Amino acid sequence: MSGPIVTIASLKGGSGKTTLACCLAVHWHIKGFKPLLIDADPQRSVVRLGERERRLGGIDILEKPDKDVWKISRQATADHGITIVDTPGFDSDITVAALAVADLVLIPVKASPLDVDRMMDTVKTLMGGVKGWAPTFRLVLTQTTRGSVISRHVRGELEEGGFPLLSSDMPNRVAYAEAGLYGATPSLTAPDGPAAQDIAAIAGETEALLETKKALTA
């Protein structure tokens, strides 16, 4: 049975897109899901992390920064339990191709007004990329500060605007950068720590959405 494809997309650099993609892929690798992480970003951030000491836990990584990423993603589903695609932080044919093949799109959004504005452009690309295609997507708040006014305000503003969000967010923690020094994620360096728990919560919501979509289309 073919595994699902999760595309991580944002037209705003610094949103935490690559961090989220790597963390989810490593989490699912530890759970035995046999993930494939596709680096479709010409900046090669995933590939570079995979070349460091911890090699992202030994997950399968494929570099494909071109518009044929949709084709290789579909082919990969036969051999992997789940495929995660990290896209460029700008509008391109690569991004559109990765969005079009996704079973679920996660859009990381920093808790700031400027990042919310740029997120709107990502959603427009989602909705207008492929004629007749209705994407399933969720926003993921990243680099948040728990209990802060700005985090509460941004979440409330997005919910009021009708944008679907995950309940779990990705708080600003130094554990991500520290793990990245060694080509790792918090799930590898501190599996019982708060950052790893944050990722597990995001992964759990993602898995539930994929199961729901699978049931609806069966």
UniProtKB/TrEMBL annotation:
Residue ranges of domain CobQ/CobB/MinD/ParA nucleotide binding in the record: 6-184
SUPFAM superfamilies: P-loop containing nucleoside triphosphate hydrolases
Family annotation (Pfam families): CbiA (PF01656)
InterPro entries according to UniProt: CobQ/CobB/MinD/ParA_Nub-bd_dom, DNA_Partitioning_ATPase, P-loop_NTPase
Alphabetized PANTHER family for the sequence: COBQ_COBB_MIND_PARA NUCLEOTIDE BINDING DOMAIN-CONTAINING PROTEIN (PTHR13696:SF96), P-LOOP CONTAINING NUCLEOSIDE TRIPHOSPHATE HYDROLASE (PTHR13696)
UniProt protein name: ParA family protein
Species name: Roseibium salinum
